[in-house]
Amino acid sequence: MSILVIAEQSGGVLRKSTLCAVSCARELATVLGVDWHLAVSGHNVSGVATELAGYGASTIRVADDASLSEYLAMPYAAAAATIAKEVGAKWVLCSSSTIGKDLMPRVAVRLDAGLASDVVSVAGADGGVQLVRPLWAGNVMATVDVLTEVKCLTVRTSDFDAAAATGGESALSASEGAVAAAQASGAKMRFVRLDATGGARPDLNEADRIISGGRGLKSEENFHILDELADSIGAAIGASRAAVDAGYAPNDYQIGQTGKSVAPDLYIAVAISGAIQHLAGMKNSKVIVAINKDPEAPIFQVADYGLVADAFQAVPELAEAFRQVRAG
Amino acid sequence: MKILVAAKRVTDPDATIRLKADLSGIELDGLEYKVNPFDENAIEAALQLQTSQGGEVIVVSIGPDEVQTTIRTGLAMGADRGILVTGSDEHLDGDLVARIFAALWRREDPDVFLLGKQCIDGDSNQVGQLLAEYLDLPQACFASEIEIIDGGTTARVSREVDGGIEVIDVTLPAVITADLRLNEPRYASLPGIMKAKRKTIDRVSIDELGVTPDQKVKTILYNKPGDRQAGIMVESVTELVDKLQNEARVL
């Protein structure tokens, strides 16, 4: 019996969400008393495999081939499932990033496995493992049982800290079987392009600090008042669904039930009322600040610090104050 | 172009969810059912594809007789007919739903199967992907734009992914799951609602489809999440910064 973590990379760069899945795998390995392994798929990804070699996996299996040069569900599922069989994995994990969500159901079918999505904890119980995952936008936490011999999980990154390197050297080996499986999956899916939102700010999934804006900002132009505040403390920028739907912010800024789940050290919600769907994606943040001109806004019920104020006054003032603090 | 589109009934997304006293499930008394919001996006996308490509839109769902109401919502929006897979919808996991949909696919042989990317009750985000793998078909999940190209043989789909919008081409037939920004679902018109009453809803049981009704993932306990306590109100930006620096120590 063993555990396999499906690593994620893009363009030969490791995605940090992988390290959250590694944390979960380490916990599971301790509970079950078994080894854990890593699978790396892509093209020219030896750097990613080498980088991961210091995290304590017994082995790292690598599928490196031109058919895997861009992420596509079919060849990646074929490669991952093949490696899972090669290492005899009974537990297969990936983070619940958009890649993990897209990929893992297909891997599960190939392994005749059940898949628990967005798992937030893997505690040992009665000789087994108790899996917990959110339902109804996190209003219910369900204990679930995966009844199949092989069990697949996606792991919610906001509930597992990124693993630190522990030293040591995992054994690296190439999986020809995974490459063959990827090639055999055909060419029914083709990558065209990625229009990256990008920029100089940290990735939302990886940021220690997040400034998030809501519909109260009233326009795309106004939404940019958050730029200065974010840059004053090196924060990423997020948004409520209402702000994204209104076109004030790009789609991948969305935090909440149907967007991203985040848990930074500091989350500052600006002009966000705090619908349950939004809270579902941010209430694990360590410190929550809410700035809203409506004293009755539900966001104040989850905030550590609430400030009733007009965002257009408070935000520039706060940015200036943060700059002064940082300047010492 | 023949399009199958899924419509699941879910509890009202804006309702407060309460647990049963024995934690065996949620309290359904007084809760209204609505069509899963993402499925409404999928239905709208199906109808738009029908407008540009011609063909037929078939709304499918699973559950007891009452689920006909869910299908009628899609028919009132403009879909041509419905299929109700009869049975309880209380013991379904994503895998079983996907196997049922795969069986429907084999009966209907469509060009596209459209679904919402996730249901707002179970929040699993699996069924489209599972269905695609069971049928060895390409998938385009979390779609924010769908364009049919290459003489109707390919769908070019923009997908909402971490870090931006990814564009992929998938050879048809294919499975596509809808994200919220794909479109603005239309409201059913009164004539649409009247017409929907005369449209056909075929019924078929899970058993007749030859699907084994077992689950791979089972929920054994429902709990409330730990509540986060409200903190304090501050009076000014200066006080806020002081608290963040000296009390919370996050600056």
Describe the secondary-structure layout.
The complex is a heterodimer of chains A (328) and B (251).
Chain A: E1 2-6, E2 9-10, E3 13-14, H1 17-32, E4 35-42, H2 46-52, E5 59-64, H3 73-86, E6 89-95, H4 98-110, E7 114-119, E8 121-125, E9 128-135, E10 140-146, E11 151-155, E12 171-174, H5 176-184, E13 189-196, E14 209-213, H6 220-223, H7 225-232, E15 236-239, H8 241-245, E16 266-270, H9 276-279, E17 287-292, E18 305-308, H10 311-327
Parallel strand pairs in A: 1-4, 1-6, 4-5, 5-12, 6-11, 7-11, 14-15, 14-16, 16-17, 17-18
Antiparallel strand pairs in A: 2-3, 8-9, 9-10
Chain B: E1 2-6, E2 9-11, E3 33-35, H1 37-53, E4 56-63, H2 68-77, E5 81-86, H3 94-108, E6 112-116, H4 127-134, E7 139-149, E8 154-161, E9 164-171, E10 174-178, H5 190-196, E11 201-205, E12 217-223, E13 232-234, H6 237-246
Parallel strand pairs in B: 1-4, 1-6, 4-5, 5-11, 6-10, 7-10
Antiparallel strand pairs in B: 2-3, 7-8, 8-9
Q: Could you characterize the architecture of this molecule?
A:
The complex is a heterodimer of chains A (328) and B (251). Helices cover 30% and strands 30% of the residues of chain A. Chain A contains ten helices and 18 strands. Chain A has helices at residues 17-32, 46-52, 73-86, 98-110, 176-184, 220-223, 225-232, 241-245, 276-279, 311-327, and strands spanning 2-6, 9-10, 13-14, 35-42, 59-64, 89-95, 114-119, 121-125, 128-135, 140-146, 151-155, 171-174, 189-196, 209-213, 236-239, 266-270, 287-292, 305-308. In chain A, helix 2 (46-52) links the parallel strand 4 and strand 5 (59-64). In chain A, helix 7 (225-232) runs parallel beside helix 10 (311-327). Helices cover 27% and strands 31% of the residues of chain B. In chain B, the strands form two sheets. In chain B, strands 9-8-7-10-6-1-4-5-11 form a nine-stranded mixed beta sheet, with helices on both faces. Chain B has a two-stranded antiparallel ribbon with strand order 2-3. The N and C termini of chain B lie far apart (57 Å). Chains A and B meet through helix 3, helix 4, strand 7, strand 10 and strand 13 of A and helix 3, helix 4, strand 7, strand 8 and strand 9 of B. Strand 18 (305-308) of chain A pairs parallel with strand 13 (232-234) of chain B.
